[in-house]
Design brief:
By secondary structure, the chain is mostly helical.
């Protein structure tokens, strides 16, 4: 039997994650049945669970994948950019990596964190990764003289993470997103260092 290349395995795994992301975003964790996962990925149950032990493992892998993506955005552009990406088109289902799909996954993560202690323990490591990325970004901004220096970086990190959680909850409730870009401008401005004479 010919050996399957690592590139092929990686591509298949990515295909499963991309399809599952849309499926979980649309139907939630409970509603993402194996049949729906098959439809969303275009693969059989055997192919899906060859790569992931069960639906729980698939969802956690997806959540971890999203956390890595977020950490990459944070490292490059900051946590406020993650929030701006969510506002780009919060009500649309789009292509791979679209903010709407990420939001759906993030809402499921939030729900499971409240109700599933085992998931909460497994997720803690990913949450630490995002916190570390945010903190490192803020430290770099402070060294560059762009971040206010009268408040501890850990406090600013917690502040931005709370704003993100609030934004996710706001969008989850279907509340209007009008003017939220201006709110994020205010959030960004509140952590920025201001020179004397600036209003």
């Amino acid at each position: 039997m010919p050996r399957v290349s690592q590139d092929h395995l990686d591509a298949r795994r990515r295909q499963i994650l991309d399809g599952a992301r849309a499926c979980f975003a649309r139907h939630g964790y409970e509603g993402a049945t194996v049949r729906r996962l098959e439809d969303a990925t275009g693969l059989s149950r055997g192919a899906i669970f060859h790569h992931f032990r069960d639906k729980e493992s698939l969802f956690l892998a997806l959540a971890e994948d999203e956390a890595h993506r977020m950490a990459a955005v944070v490292a490059e552009h900051g946590l406020v950019q993650v929030m701006r990406d969510l506002l780009a088109a919060p009500d649309e289902q789009g292509p791979q990596g679209h903010p709407a799909d990420w939001l759906g996954t993030r809402l499921e993560v939030s729900r499971r964190l409240r109700t599933d202690p085992e998931f909460r323990a497994r997720w803690a490591e990913r949450a630490r990764e995002l916190t570390a990325a945010t903190r490192q970004r803020l430290l770099r901004q402070r060294e560059a003289g762009k971040l206010r220096d009268d408040i501890d970086v850990d406090v600013l990190t917690s502040f931005l993470e709370l704003v993100l959680e609030g934004l996710v909850s706001h969008l989850a409730m279907g509340l209007p997103a009008t003017d939220l870009d201006r709110v994020l401008d205010l959030v960004e401005d509140s952590v920025r260092r201001h020179r004397k004479g600036q209003g």
